[in-house]
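Exercise 7.
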Amino acid sequence: MENRQFGNGFKTIAVLLQMVFLMLVIVDLSFMVNLFGRSRFSFRDIGNNYSFFHSHYYTERITDEIKELSVYLQMKKTAGGNEPDNAIYKHYKLKFDTGDSNFYYWFFHEDAFYTNMPNIKTKEAAEEFGKACGNYLYYDDLSITVEGNFPHLNRVSDIEFLRLFQKERGGELLIAVDTSLAKSDAIADAESIYRTCFPWVGIGMVTAILSGLSFLLSMIYLTLATGRCGEDDHIRLHRIDYLPTEALFVITVAFIIALIAFCARLSGKDWGMSSSLILTGTLVFLSDTVLLTLYLSFVRKIKADQLISCSLMSYGVRTFKKGMRRQGIGNRAKIQFVAYTVCVLAFSWEAFSGRHIWAVVCLLGVFSYTAIHFLQQAIQRTKILEGIREISHGKLDYKFDLKDFSGDYMELAEEINGIGEGLMHAVEENVKNERLKTELVTNVSHDIKTPLTSIINYISLIKMEGSWNENVENYVGILERKSQRLKQLTEDLVEVSQITSGNILLDMQPINMVELICQTGGEFNEIFEDAELTIITRLPKEPVMILADGSRVWRVVQNLYNNVAKYAMHNTRVFVELKVNDGYAEFSIKDISAQGIHMPVQDLGERFVRGDESRGTEGHGLGLSIARNLTTLMGGTFEISLDGDLFIAAITFPVINP
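Solution. The predicted structure, written as tokens, is:
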């Protein structure tokens, strides 16, 4: 299903919105910096609905006026009766004493008396005039007291006019501001600017905050959406993304440095408000276009996991590794040893002979790298050994994560993964072949069983048809014996296939092994007598109970007896023994083989394997295999051992309480 949230239309809108919001933020900040940078406003007034005469901005303007007045009065006192021919003095005189100012003063100290208040001579008259103006400040140096109704009086009084009274104590200073602003001066201009621009400061702050948040959301969306499209989650790279990472980084840093230098150069010029805003908007548009392109390229590289791989350093490292791999393990070890020795000797010489700190740091870095390298090698060796143990224990699907390895160990992990895959394929093929064999045996056995049953039945019918000559009777007898043998072979094959495929049900019940062995031995007494075998049986007097399927365990014991009857040497003794040892019932049967056994003992329990390699006896090599598999299925153990021609077969089951 198409995912439209990362479509090109949404991306285009997001780019335009982030650019607009960024321009709003920068323009608002530039506007406020322009105002505050020119001392038009005070940051303390943000958030306060002060009028001009109660604002910190007004306090700062009056403080500046008082400082200039202090300089002017000090110059007049120093000059005495002669006015100095000084441009600064003339500027202050035009500012304070021409009668075009809303700022008034009255000063008296050491018989020096100066004022710009019209027709005011006494302190009382000056104080009354100041109160009538609106804002006033009175300082008495004799009592060191400050009076007045200026807002933020503590800041207004903390100024340099105290220098006027530093030579001799005593004197008075009164300052007043006509709050009606009847005259056009710097204070009136400041009030006009404050009244016009200050409401826009709050709007600009709110706009900057909202625009900043919107810009941030747009950038988050672009960060998530870049490289993706509406069709799938595959990261698509642009042409610029194929540039080396170092090149992109250098371009980004160079552009930022150039931008900062350009802005610093422009800041030295006095730009008007409108010109400043236009220039700022243009710079923001161009800078945002370049920086956004570079930023999104970095993001796409990170998403595609190519930030490091698509770099000159990574290319150099890969080239170096390829060259090292072509050298072989021995040459690689030599190169690493030589490089390590050269670095250690060089840094040691510079550190101990030249006493250079950088050489000490580099030497410590080499040792740290060596320690980390050996630790990583040890960790990788441990993982290799653990993986080999898992595979050796039969977990052939075990795979090494190649990201956990490097160098020679990565190659070793790859080869071991290949060995595991090869073994798994071989085991799967063997299991498949074994299953096919089992199915073939089962199907063939079933196919043989039907005509064999007919043959046996017709032999029985032939025997019921009166008497024939001696030769015919011999032929019929041979047919009967061979058909019965073939029937037994067919049944054994079916049973083997059922056991191998696990298609067999067990009815586990308590079984008395003593009684079972006695019954089986009784059934084989006549057979053993015909084979001229002497049975020596050793059984406990008390019952020995095991948990097993009665018919299956009887089949196991019967097969062991049958094996003795077929392969034991005539005129020998057979030892049958049952004993209890450490909670286990151990049944064993020992006989002397009629013919020498020249094969490994572990092969005797396999299917179709017979000790009589000439295959001159009637056995078919399935009895021991059936006995072993049935014993294992019932939770017992089956063992065969040889001592020369002495053949020993033993089964073991846990004993249970009767």
